Amino acid sequence: MNRPTGADDGGTRDGSRLPRRRQGQLESQVLTVLRSADGAATAGWVQEHLDGDLAYTTVITILSRLYEKKAVTRARQGRSYAWTPASDEAGLAALRMRRVLDGERDREAVLARFVSALSAGDEARLRALLSRAADDSDGADGSHGADGSDNGDGSQGPGGSHDPDGRDGSHDPDGPVAPEG
């Protein structure tokens, strides 16, 4: 079926085709623009500040998907929304990793393969983070992270997100073992 190339099907408003982007690239670009804003930003503002010539509806779609993923927050501003990033880049990468893990049946196998593929440096970092999370989980200093976790520095720890429903695997016999404190 021959269709004209345009902003509504992945092209630009002038009819030219945009190069195919890797998964998450547009979301990352939108989040970068949102972080550069002084406070909350409208979709129109985001569109104006993005490199390229994306249609307004494309920006709205990206922001809506980010909202569904809890990567951005929104507040009514007149008839539209003002958008704000909910986390930094590291937090969003951790959220993506977490979603992949949560979507797999054999969590242990996925984690084992992930860990076995780490470089020596990354393995050492992971061990240090797990050790720090175990030390922090005893709550001896009474500190709590920004997300309500026991990570007193506001970080989300190696798991990437706090799950108040207990679906983070710490109470799941098939999930990863929670550090003992």
From TrEMBL:
Region called Disordered, residue ranges: 1-24, 133-181
InterPro entries reported in the protein's UniProt record: BlaI_family, WH-like_DNA-bd_sf, WH_DNA-bd_sf
Gene3D superfamilies, A to Z: Winged helix-like DNA-binding domain superfamily/Winged helix DNA-binding domain
Keyword Cell wall biogenesis/degradation part of the UniProt annotation: no
Domain of life according to the entry: Bacteria
Keywords: DNA-binding, Transcription, Transcription regulation
GO BP of this protein: negative regulation of DNA-templated transcription
Basic and acidic residues composition bias: residue spans: 162-174
Pfam families for this protein: Penicillinase_R
One of the record's GO molecular function terms: DNA binding
Family: Belongs to the BlaI transcriptional regulatory family.
Protein name, as recorded: BlaI/MecI/CopY family transcriptional regulator
Organism this protein belongs to: Streptomyces sp. NBC_01401
Lineage: Bacteria, Bacillati, Actinomycetota, Actinomycetes, Kitasatosporales
